[in-house]
Amino acid sequence: MTAQNDTVKIHGNVQDSVISPNVQKSRLNYKSLIIPAAFIGYGVASLTVKDLKQLNFSTRDEINEHRPDHIKLDNFTQYAPAVLVYGLNAAGIKGKHNFRDRTVIYVTSQAISAAITLPLKHLVKEERPDESNNLSFPSGHTAAAFSSAQFMFREYKDTNFWLSLSGYPIAVFTGVYRMLNDKHWVGDVVAGAGFGILSTELAYWLFPKINTMLGGKNKNASTMIMPFYQEKSLGIGLVKSF
């Protein structure tokens, strides 16, 4: 009985860390797939369509004429919109989901993005502009960045629309710098943006199903996902009560 009371107390005080009691069913909005489908279609077409391939080369030539400095900031900005979501929630600007639910959604979106982009790189085998390898298409950094930006949009679009859009400029910056760093063609970046948005849309659609699997049939069960740091190791812990 004592353990049960403690659990109820935790549930009442840490509302941003536990499972929501009522999870609405999510339907895949096909209109939301139009933009990512267009981006992906352009990227695929750029692999074979002469004019689009020429645009890849002419854009790279234009970039090389200005000889921009190569920076590694795009390695970090790809996750910046998602970090902003957690920071805003910590500051009291609540999004659509609590800590546990949005973490499940974000991890799912990144997993889907990686499951799409990594195999495609090895199947397409497009050479990078800098000729470092044949894993150019699509841009994984851009996919992660737009997945994060779409995540921020979905979390805040109903409560603060203009704030929800603030992740997209960061995602665009990431994609542009993949080209400035001579790692990707235009078509790679556009396709990556499409795959990133698509991944997040699929993650929100799949969330009720994943949530059911995590929560089981017991409606009183709750799950908490928390980061931890122990012995110089960073990880994520899963705590489940029944």
UniProtKB/TrEMBL annotation:
SUPFAM superfamilies reported for this sequence: Acid phosphatase/Vanadium-dependent haloperoxidase
InterPro entries xref list: PAP2/HPO, PAP2/HPO_sf
Keywords: Membrane, Transmembrane, Transmembrane helix
Annotated ranges, domain Phosphatidic acid phosphatase type 2/haloperoxidase: 103-204
Domain of life: Bacteria
Transmembrane residue ranges: 30-49, 161-180, 186-207
PANTHER family named among the record's database cross-references: AT30094P (PTHR14969:SF13), SPHINGOSINE-1-PHOSPHATE PHOSPHOHYDROLASE (PTHR14969)
Protein name: Phosphatidic acid phosphatase type 2/haloperoxidase domain-containing protein
Organism in which the protein naturally occurs: Chryseobacterium shigense
